[in-house]
Each structure stands twice: as C-alpha cells, then as structure tokens.
Specification:
Layout (H helix, E strand, L loop, with lengths): L17 E6 L19 E4 L4 E6 L5 H12 L19 H5 L1 E5 L6 E5 L3 H12 L19 H12 L4 E6 L7 H16 L3 E6 L3 H4 L5 E5 L5 E4 L5 H11 L1 H9 L3
Parallel strand pairs: 3-7, 3-8, 5-6, 6-7
Antiparallel strand pairs: 1-2, 1-4, 8-9
Helix pairs in contact: 4-5, 7-8
Main location: membrane
Pfam families: AAA_21, AAA_23
Subcellular location: Cell membrane
Length: 257
C-alpha cells in the first residue's frame, strides 16, 4: 500500500508586505529634495510590524518618503489608489529613483490619503459613484461633500476600504477632531487584525502616535532616523508639559507682546 500524501496547508502571507527600504544619495545632489535632512545621507529602514508611524518636525522628510512609497505602489501622488490617476511628474521622483524596496510579496493595492488633497479626491469618488447603488458605490450613496471632513474620512476608511493592501496616511489628524482620532485608532486596529493591511502613517498627533501595536520612527532634524517609544517623542513631551501648565507657556510666548 503506497504512502499517503498529506497536503501542506498554504499559508497566506501577512503584513508587513513592504519589508525594508534603502536609500543611496547620488553624488551630484545639492538641490531639493536632497536638501531635506532625511535624504542628505544614505539610510535604511526595516518594517517589522503591520503599522509603522513616522514622527518628527516639518521638513524632516516624512511626507516626502510617504509620497515616494505611494508612487512606488502605483498610487496617485495627490492621494487615492491605482484607479485614481493623474499625469505628470512629482517633486519626489528624484528620491524615488534612489530608493530600493524589499517586498514579500509585492503588493500594489491599497490607498494613499493626503488631507490637503482630500477635497479633490472626494470629487473623484462622487464622479465614479454617480448612478451606482450603495453596494457598488465608493461613497455609500451619499456624497462625501455632504459630510463633514472628518465624517467623510472615517466613512471612506471604515466602510469602503480595508482589503489586502498598503495604506498610507499623511497627517490624517488634519481631518479629525481628538474624539475622531480615537475612533480612527479603532479602525487601524481592525485593519491590522485582518493581517492583510500594512499601514504607514506620518502624524504630529500624540493620540495617533500612541497607537500601542505599531512601531514609531523618529525623523530627526539632522537627518538621523531612529525607532522610539511614543513617550520619548518630542511631540509627546511638549504636549505633556503644555497641558500640565499652559499658563507658564503663555507667559513665555507673550512676554514681549
């Protein structure tokens, strides 16, 4: 009697799909975007968890790197998915050419959210959803312009997106009140628990950077890149000192006025 053959179960890959990024600065690179601190030197970073959060001051390179990742995934530079495309070059194309990406496996589905261009994206969603039933529309049959900015953002991500893919958020707190930021944390958790969503986010919000299941990368003003705890971030420390004694900060801010 022949030996029986037992099929080995196929294990689906889990997030993170994008495992690492490396950057090599070109020799002739004295102009923008190579004047941005992060891109003033070679660097590498590894993504070990499904949720990665970028923190740091404006101009350190967070948004530039996010946009480069989004372009590599095939997303529109102004926000959206692979289906929402506009033509033309991006200012971050020179950076993209110097980046190397390691995937396991390569995933090109997902979404790129930019608060500054969400109005234009809402127009696009309403156009492609016109005349469709709720089951097939992306806005649930209700124009995103007929909802508050925060409502539209949460509705889109909690009800219409979240399948297998890479989801990139550039300062989503711009669209969200503190209470809605907490709701957004629950959306992140639900997305993460599917094991099929990788989230990469840049934020200035202590609420969002406190997400306990992710990894936090600090983009330093001198170009350094390091992993930290959220309570070690300068944002958290500053907010903590301010909330503990706002009058002291006000006295210092307005002493010369």
């Amino acid at each position: 009697m022949g030996a029986s053959h037992v099929k080995t179960p196929v294990r689906l890959s889990r997030a993170p799909f994008l495992r690492s990024i490396s950057f090599r600065k070109p020799e002739e690179s004295d102009d923008y975007p190579f004047t941005v601190p992060l891109f003033s030197r070679d660097f590498g970073m590894a993504f070990l968890k499904p949720v990665s959060i970028f923190v740091g001051e404006n101009g350190a390179g967070k948004s530039t790197l996010l946009e480069a990742i989004a372009l590599h995934c095939g997303f529109n530079a102004e926000g959206g998915s692979r289906d929402h495309q506009t033509h033309g070059r991006s200012d971050v194309d020179p950076v993209l050419e110097c980046l190397r990406f390691s995937w396991l496996p390569r995933v090109t589905t997902g979404f790129f959210f930019r608060a500054e261009s969400f109005f234009a994206f809402s127009n696009y969603i309403d156009q492609v959803s016109a005349g469709r039933t709720d089951a097939y529309s992306l806005n649930g049959g209700r124009s995103l312009h007929h909802q508050s900015h925060g409502e539209a953002f949460l509705a889109l991500f909690s009800k219409r997106l979240g399948g297998r893919g890479v989801y990139i958020f550039d300062e989503p707190e711009a669209a969200l009140s503190p209470a809605r930021q907490m709701t957004f944390l629950t959306i992140l958790r639900r997305m993460e628990l599917t094991t099929q969503c990788q989230i990469i986010m840049a934020t200035h919000s202590p609420i969002l950077m406190s997400y306990p299941f992710g990894e936090l990368f600090s983009f330093e003003g001198n170009g350094d890149l390091r992993e930290i705890s959220f309570k070690a971030s300068e944002h958290w420390k500053l907010y903590g000192r301010f909330l503990a004694n706002p009058e002291k900060f006000h006295d210092a801010l307005f002493e010369d006025e």
